[in-house]
């Protein structure tokens, strides 16, 4: 009976060792993206969604705490670049005791599947989300060809 219990104890010990090694492996994998004890992203790039709806693209980028005056949007053909800066300064007369949000700059660029008509782009910043509507250029839109 004791022999069987020792085998079971060894088996659970091996499983515990495997679990510990797997935990260490997954913690190491996430390390380049995480900084310090808090789960903050090291990269300054905003999280972005890019969607296509027929004859236009839509982009939604998270830009909390950034005013529209501090954002730059550049379009050339099918290349889109969103850049900006966030300045965090304590109000006059205040002394900062903890700064978890720092001043930073960011730049994010995309190569879109088709060219965009830069003259018709619509950009809106609402509740910390940048909404871009990027109509495709006439050359990129499909055309119906009639047969003579």
Query: What quaternary form is this?
Result: single chain
Number of helices: 1
What structural category arises from helix and sheet content?
alpha+beta
Give the DSSP E fraction (strand runs of 2 or more residues).
25-35%
Q: Could you give the count of β-strands?
A: 9
On the 0-100 scale, what is the average pLDDT? 82
Write the element-wise H/E pattern from the N-terminal end onward.
HEEEEEEEEE
Rough outline: flat
Strand order of the largest sheet: 3-4-9-8
* Unreliable stretches: 33-42
Largest sheet: 4 strands, antiparallel
User: How much is the radius of gyration in Å?
Assistant: 25 Å
Distance from N terminus to C terminus (CA atoms, Å) equals 92 Å
Q: Helicity, in percent?
A: 10-25%
List the helices and strands and how they pair.
Layout: H1 2-30, E1 34-35, E2 40-41, E3 48-53, E4 56-62, E5 71-76, E6 79-86, E7 104-111, E8 122-126, E9 129-135
Antiparallel strand pairs: 1-2, 3-4, 4-9, 5-6, 6-7, 8-9
Keywords:
148 residues, four-stranded antiparallel β-sheet, three-stranded antiparallel β-sheet, alpha+beta, flat
Q: Can you describe this structure in just a few lines?
A:
With 148 residues, this protein is an alpha+beta fold. The protein is built from one helix and nine strands.
Would you kindly provide a written description of the structure presented here, covering whatever features stand out?
This protein has one helix and nine strands. The protein has one helix at residues 2-30; strands at residues 34-35, 40-41, 48-53, 56-62, 71-76, 79-86, 104-111, 122-126, 129-135. It has a four-stranded antiparallel sheet, with no helix packed on it. Strands 5-6-7 form a three-stranded antiparallel sheet, with no helix packed on it. Strands 1-2 form a two-stranded antiparallel sheet. The longest helix is centred in the N-terminal third of the chain and has 29 residues, at 2-30. It starts with a helix and ends in a 13-residue tail after the last strand.
């Amino acid at each position: 009976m004791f022999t069987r219990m020792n085998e079971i104890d060894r088996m659970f010990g091996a499983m515990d060792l495997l679990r510990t090694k797997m935990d260490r492996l997954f913690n190491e994998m996430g390390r380049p993206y995480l900084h310090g004890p808090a789960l903050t992203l090291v990269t300054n790039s905003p999280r972005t969604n890019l969607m296509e709806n027929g004859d236009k693209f839509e982009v939604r980028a998270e830009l909390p705490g950034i005013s529209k005056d501090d954002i730059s949007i550049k379009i050339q053909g099918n290349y889109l670049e969103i850049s900006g800066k966030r300045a965090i300064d304590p109000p006059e007369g205040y002394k900062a005791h903890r700064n978890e949000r720092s001043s930073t700059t960011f730049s994010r660029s995309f190569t879109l599947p088709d060219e965009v008509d830069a003259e018709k782009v619509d950009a809106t910043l609402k509740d910390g989300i940048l909404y871009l509507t990027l109509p495709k250029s006439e050359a990129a839109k499909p055309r119906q060809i009639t047969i003579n």
